[in-house]
Amino acid sequence: MTLQAPKGTFDWLPPRSERALAVREALTAPARRAGYGYIETPVFEDTALFVRGVGESTDIVSKEMYTFEDKGGRSITLRPEGTASVVRAVLQHGLHNGQLPVKLWYSGSQFRYERAQKGRYRHFWQVGAEALGSEDPALDAELILLAVDGYAALGLTGVRLLINTLGDRECRPVYRAALQDFLRGLDLDEPTRQRIEINPLRVLDDKRPEVQERLAGAPLVVDHLCGACKAYHEEVRSLLTASGVAYTDDPRLVRGLDYYTRTTFEFVHDGLGSQSAVGGGGRYDGLSEMLGGPALPSVGWALGVDRTVLAMEAEGLFPGDGEQARVQVYGVPLGEEARRRMFLLVTELRRAGLAADMSFGGKGVKGAMKGADRSGASHAVILGERDIAAGTAQVKDLVSGEQAAVPLAEIVMTLKERLDK
Ligand code: ATP
Ligand code: MG
Hints:
Elements: H1 17-33, E1 37-38, E2 44-46, H2 47-53, H3 59-64, E3 66-69, E4 75-78, H4 83-92, E5 102-111, E6 123-132, H5 137-153, E7 159-165, H6 172-184, H7 190-198, H8 200-203, H9 209-214, H10 227-242, E8 248-249, E9 261-269, E10 277-283, H11 287-290, E11 298-304, H12 305-314, E12 329-333, H13 336-351, E13 356-358, H14 365-375, E14 379-383, H15 385-390, E15 392-397, E16 403-407, H16 411-419
Parallel strand pairs: 1-5, 7-8, 12-13, 12-14
Antiparallel strand pairs: 2-4, 3-4, 5-6, 6-11, 7-9, 9-10, 10-11, 14-15, 15-16
Helix pairs in contact: 1-5, 1-12, 5-10
The protein binds adenosine-5'-triphosphate (ATP) and magnesium ion.
Adenosine-5'-triphosphate binds at residues 81, 112, 114, 120-121, 124, 126, 275, 277-280, 302, 304, 306-307.
């Protein structure tokens, strides 16, 4: 058997791979327009970064990380998410000592050892945006809007926005204690009982219906907010409303760790089955301190490129891109001398800005014309011995079938005139 890609991974192949590029481009364009700069961090980091920056009690750190020892005996982990690396890089390079907020966007592979299924992979692609160093409800609203605009630019209509607030250092501990009291009184399995003690908010996120049933009367953070958190959340919501963004308040939407504060949000799409989240984010005011930095209140999101492509396919948003042309012009050389000349001509066409390809491997006219057809090119340039002698080539319009001899020196100009819209 030939080798296969590892379980939980897949290859993006043309033409479908163009969809992933288009999604990455469209989802990040609004952030770039809003002054977010591009950051690229390593695909692997010291394991300690994620243990501290994502949190030991999370599924990601406890079950999903690709961790290994490198040849120098260091514990290394393939990144499972982007935020911890971005904060690490900001602190390492002192970006937070300049103008605040520091606005950054990223795009790249993430790795999580998950139960592989449609929409849930072990290697997947996220784009992300982070604004670090400011506590301002307008910044939370800005980030949410940038994601909303990204989905809208792709033509998606089925993306719903869920939002919640998690309180802060003042009010969260009181809520946490109330939630623990409630949860301790429930009939739950042992792992869940343990989670109540370490990470009680995460219990609210349990996907099992029998657990959800028992959680019906659980205290909600909205009923425990301090005045400052209440006002902050009201302002975020009011800015969203004023910008024409529709959202649903979801009082059960949580992130489990103490350094996640206030605003939390998720984008879901109903065409994806149980892997419904296409993106998510929130405010993480305590993360910098967890990583040994100063207080750096920040907010950000990560959007799943793979799931966004699936959502678009579910909405039928890529009609007929399978027939999209690979190139505009296709060269058909007949004979050795023609092959050398065609190689140079195709190079010239490309340098002039046209997309061009040619037949390789010494095919006869039939095979080469089939190649022209499959390339999607609108024009073929056919060069035989007689043409070379006459100093011309045949330019064939592959749509109308019309063909005419054109002097070799005028081929590039002629095709540019016809094809440059
Ligand atoms: P889920 O609840 O589906 O596991 P998550 O809370 O783990 O999602 P985040 O860590 O917030 O997801 O990542 C942001 C986005 O990245 C998700 O909304 C989703 O679109 C995408 N994503 C997360 N995990 C995967 C995965 N294993 N395969 C494909 N996309 C993923
Ligand atoms: Mg997950």
